[in-house]
Amino acid sequence: MNDNQTPIIIDTDPGIDDAVALAAALYSKELDIKLITTVAGNVSLEKVTYNTLRLLQFFKKEIPVAAGAAQPLIKEPIDASNVHGETGMDGYDFPEPNENLLLKEHAVNAMYKTILQSNKPITLVPIGPLTNIALLIRLYPEVKTNIKEIVLMGGSTTRGNSGVMAEFNIHADPEAASIVFNSGVPIVMVGLDVGWKALVYPEDSEKLKTLNETGHMIYHLFQKYRGGSMKTGLKMYDSCAIAYLLCPEMFTTQKAYVGIELNGSLSKGCTVTDLKGYLNMPSNATVCLDIDEKLFKGWFLDSLQKCN
Amino acid sequence: MNDNQTPIIIDTDPGIDDAVALAAALYSKELDIKLITTVAGNVSLEKVTYNTLRLLQFFKKEIPVAAGAAQPLIKEPIDASNVHGETGMDGYDFPEPNENLLLKEHAVNAMYKTILQSNKPITLVPIGPLTNIALLIRLYPEVKTNIKEIVLMGGSTTRGNSGVMAEFNIHADPEAASIVFNSGVPIVMVGLDVGWKALVYPEDSEKLKTLNETGHMIYHLFQKYRGGSMKTGLKMYDSCAIAYLLCPEMFTTQKAYVGIELNGSLSKGCTVTDLKGYLNMPSNATVCLDIDEKLFKGWFLDSLQKCN
Amino acid sequence: MNDNQTPIIIDTDPGIDDAVALAAALYSKELDIKLITTVAGNVSLEKVTYNTLRLLQFFKKEIPVAAGAAQPLIKEPIDASNVHGETGMDGYDFPEPNENLLLKEHAVNAMYKTILQSNKPITLVPIGPLTNIALLIRLYPEVKTNIKEIVLMGGSTTRGNSGVMAEFNIHADPEAASIVFNSGVPIVMVGLDVGWKALVYPEDSEKLKTLNETGHMIYHLFQKYRGGSMKTGLKMYDSCAIAYLLCPEMFTTQKAYVGIELNGSLSKGCTVTDLKGYLNMPSNATVCLDIDEKLFKGWFLDSLQKCN
Amino acid sequence: MNDNQTPIIIDTDPGIDDAVALAAALYSKELDIKLITTVAGNVSLEKVTYNTLRLLQFFKKEIPVAAGAAQPLIKEPIDASNVHGETGMDGYDFPEPNENLLLKEHAVNAMYKTILQSNKPITLVPIGPLTNIALLIRLYPEVKTNIKEIVLMGGSTTRGNSGVMAEFNIHADPEAASIVFNSGVPIVMVGLDVGWKALVYPEDSEKLKTLNETGHMIYHLFQKYRGGSMKTGLKMYDSCAIAYLLCPEMFTTQKAYVGIELNGSLSKGCTVTDLKGYLNMPSNATVCLDIDEKLFKGWFLDSLQKCN
Ligand SMILES: [Ca+2]
Ligand SMILES: [Ca+2]
Ligand SMILES: [Ca+2]
Ligand SMILES: [Ca+2]
C-alpha cells in the first residue's frame, strides 16, 4: 500500500451488480483492498463466496476472502432467486476458483484482525446486507476507533426496490442496518436515489462487449440477466459505492439522521431519512441525494477500461 | 341541483389552505355542495367550525354545516398550532358567522342523512384528517352504496410533510385513514406528489390582491401566514382535491394498493403506495402522481376570479 | 325506576354466556336496564340482535334494543363460529321475537340519548367487544359526564383465552378497548382472572334443569354447547360483570393502569395490567383479581331462581 | 470429566442471584463446567466479569472465563443499577481475582471452540440476557449440532418482573432471545413461574450464616441486598436453572411454542408461551410451569452445604 491509497474492506454478495463493482474497485490504483468478505443476500452464502472466488480468479487478483453470515440477524431471508438466476452470475463461463484465497476464519474475525492491524483507519464498503458489519460492531465494538467510515450501498430517501418503502440490502436485514446506522461510525449512504440514475444502456453494454475481457464478461452477464429489459437502463447500484470512494464530487449529499424502521407491518426496512429535521435527532449519515449521471457514465466506462 | 352537477360533501379543517379550496368549490357551477362537515386538524374542532361558518358568511353562501370529531380515533392529536397561528385563519377581519347554518347534529349523522337522501351517489371530498369519514363508514356501512367516490387530500407516495414519511392529514389519524382506504369505496388520493407542484408565488399572490374581494382576503391570509417564505411557492394542497373534481385531465394517475402503516415506530401514517405490485394486493385507490403545473395555475386563478 | 336502582345499559353479543348474564340482570330488582345494545362478537351482528330479541321474548321483558357495530374498528373480525355454533344459542327452541322492541336507530345514538336523558349517571355494562362503546366515546365525548362507570367483561392480567395473551372481547377489537380504557371514564375490568373461577359444574347444571323455565332453557343451552367438556366447569364470564354490579364484595380488586397492546405481533389485544407500577402511569381501572368462588356460586343460583 | 458428568457452559451476569447459582453448580459432582462466559445484564460487562473472577477466587476454582457482549443486540440497555447496587455483589469483601483465568478471546469464540472440541454434546446454561448465545448461533450455526440443549433462566408464561409482561433476562435483549428460541436447539425455559416459588426466607438465610464459608458469604450478600424485604422470600431465579440440570424431577414442565414479542409497544420482551396451541406452531421449548417448593428448598440447602 502506498500512502495515497485508501485501505478498504469490501463486504459483498455477488450477484452481477457486485461483480461490476468489484471490477471497478480491484483495478483502481487509489484503493487498497485488504479483504473481501461475503454475506448471504442476492443468493446464498455458499454461492456468493464461490462467485467472489471465481471473480478473483477471473481478474487474477490475490485478495483474501472470508465467508460471513449465512442468514440475517432476526428476519427470515428474502428469497431473491427469481431475480438473480441459479448461480447469481449466470451467462459467463468463469474459471474455477483458487480456494487458497478463502480464509479459514469467519468474516467477522477476519475483519476484526484486518482493522486492528491496519496503520491507517479502514473504510468498510458493504454492498450487500449489513449482517456481517452489525455482528462485527456488536462482537468487537473496539474496532470502531480504527474504522474511518462505512460507505454502504443501501437505503433510499423515498420508495424502495424490495418492499414498497425498502431497498433490498436494508430490507434483507433491517436489524443489522439499525445496528450499523446507530453505531456512531461515520456512514455514507449510497442508495436508490443515486442508484436509479447510475444507468447502463444497451449502447453502453455494446461498447463493453469489445472493450476488454472484463467488458466481455460483463456484457454476457448483462445479456443473460436482463437482455430484454435493458432498454430502460440497468442500474449499477453497487458501483455507486465504489464511485463515491473515488469521485465523491459526482454526488450531491446531505447530512441527516437515518432511522431504520424495525416495527412497521408495511414499511419494515424503510430508511427513514430525516432531511427536514422532523425527528430532532443528530445526523448519523451523509446521504447521497443525487449523482451527476454523465460524470458517472464516464467514470464507469473508464473504470472498466482499466480492467485488464 | 341540475343534472350536470356533482353532488358533494366537503369535510374540512380550515386553515388557509382549506379556505382557498372552499372558495374554488363554492363558486364552481359544476359542484353542488350538499353539506360541509368539520373535523379537528389544522386547529381545534371549535376553531375549524367557527372558521367554516365565517367563510360561508364572507362568501354569502348558505350551506348546512355540521361539526364532527374533536380528536383522532386512536392517536394523540398532533399540535399544529405553531404552523397555523392562533385561529388558523389569521390576517383578515372576517364577518361574524350565521350560526343558523350550524346543524344540531353530529357531522356523521348529517352525512348519513345527506347521502341516503340523495338521488345521485354522493362524492365525499375530505380535505382534513379522515376521522369523520372513518366514523361514518363504521357506524353506517350502508352509506357505501350511495357514495360515488372519495376524493381526498392526503398521503404521499414518497416522503411526508408531517412525519418523515407521513403526510399531515394521514399522520393526524392513521387508523381513520386505514378504515377509509380499506372500505371498498373508490378512493382518489390527491397527495403531496401533486400538492408540491400546485404552487402560488408572490407574483400570483399580488394578482389576487386586486382580483376581487375573495382574492383580497386570500392575499391577506397568505401575507400573514407565510409572507416570508412565499418565495419558494405556497402549496395549494387542498385546492388540488377540488381541481381533481373539476379537471381530472390535469392529473397523471395510477391505480394502486395503498396501505396505511399503523405499526411503524418511525413511519406510522405512511401511505405505503404499491406502484410496483410488491404486496400483491388489489388496487384500492387512484393515486395522483403528477399534475400539469401550468394548467393548475390557470385553473386556480380562473377559479378565484369567479368568486364574487 | 326507584331511587335505589342502578340505571344501566347492557352492550352484549349473545351467545350463551351473555344469555345467562342477561337472565341474572333482567330479574334483579337492583338494576334498571334502560337499553340493551348489540355488537358483533360471538356471532354476527344480525344473529346477536336476533338472539337478544328472542331472549327478551322468552323472559317477557320489554326493554328497547338497538343494534350497533357489525365489525371491529380496525382489526379483521375473529371468526368464532366454531365455538358458538350456528346461531350462537343452539339447543333451545326460543319463541320468535317481538321486533317492535328493536329501535330504528344505531346503538350509539340510542346510548347517547339514553345517557343524556338520564337523571342519574348511567353505568355501562359491556359484555362483548368494545366497538360500540368506543364509537360512542369518539362520536359523543360529552356523554362521559353522565356515565358513572363502565363495568366491562374483558381482559386478563395474565394469559388470554383467544390469543395466547389476549382475552376474546379485547382481542376482538383492541383499538376500541384502547379508546375505552383511555377515555377517562372509571373502568371496572372484570376479566379472566375471575371468569376462570366463576364455574358451573354438571351438578349445578342439573339443578338448573328443574329450577324454573329459565333454568330449563339454560340447562339445554349448556348441554348443546359443551355437554362433553362441562366436567372441568363452564366459565360464566359475562355473569361476573353482573355479579360485580350487585355484589362487589365478592371480588378482590386493585386499581391499576391497564394499557392495551396495539402493536404486538404476538400479543396484540393483551391488557397490559401494571399491578406493580412499571409504567409509571396513573391508574385507569379497577381490576378484579379474584372472586370468592363459593359466594359466586350462591349468587349465581339465587339469581337464576328469581327468573320466572 | 468422568462419563457421568454433564459438560456445560454457564453464561452469567453476576449479580447475587448468579453468585448463588454458580456456587451450587461449581460444587456439583454431576456437572463439568467447561467455561464460564459473561454478559452485560444485572450490571456492566466489566463488573460482571470482575465479579465472576472474584467468585472463582473465593471458591478456589480454576475454570476459564471469557467476556462477551457489552450491550444488547438492538435494544438500549436496561439500567438496573438501582436494583443491584454499585458492584452487583456488595456486602462481602471478596479476594482479588486471578486474572489468568480470563481468556484473551471473546466469549463467542471461546464457546465456539469449547463446543466443537467437546466429545460429548454441551449443555448451555445462560442465566443472564441471551446476547452471547444469539451471537454464537448467528456467527457459528455449525455449533448447533454439538449443543445438547439450552437450559436458560428467563421468561414467564404470565406476567413479568421487568416490564409488566416481560422477565428481565428476555426484556434486556428480546431480539437475542428470539434468535435463541427460534434456533432449533432444544430449549428448557426456567422462568418466573418457578423462580417465584424458589424462595429463601430469613430463617433459611440464618442457617446459611454459619453453614460454611460460602453460606457466610451468601448470607452477607443477602443482608446487604435485601435485608429489609427478605420477609416475603428472596427469589433464587438463577439457581432454578442449575436445579433443573441436576433434579429435573422437581419441575412440572410442558412442551410449547414460545414466541418472543419484538414489536409490542407495551409488551416487548414478553415470552408468548402458547400452552393451549392458539398459534398452531410446533413447540420449541420445554417450559417449566411449576416446582416442588419443598424439594427445591432441600436441594438448595444441600447444594450450599457441599460448597467448602
Ligand atoms: Ca450487492
Ligand atoms: Ca385541510
Ligand atoms: Ca359476551
Ligand atoms: Ca443472572
TrEMBL record, chains A, B, C, D:
Keywords linked to the UniProt accession: Glycosidase, Hydrolase
GO BP terms: purine nucleoside catabolic process
Protein name per Swiss-Prot or TrEMBL: Ribonucleoside hydrolase RihC
GO CC annotation: cytosol
Domain Inosine/uridine-preferring nucleoside hydrolase: 8-297
Record-level Gene Ontology MF annotations: purine nucleosidase activity; uridine nucleosidase activity
KW 4Fe-4S (keyword) present: no
Gene3D superfamilies in the cross-refs: Ribonucleoside hydrolase-like
Keyword Hydrolase: yes
Pfam families assigned: IU_nuc_hydro (PF01156)
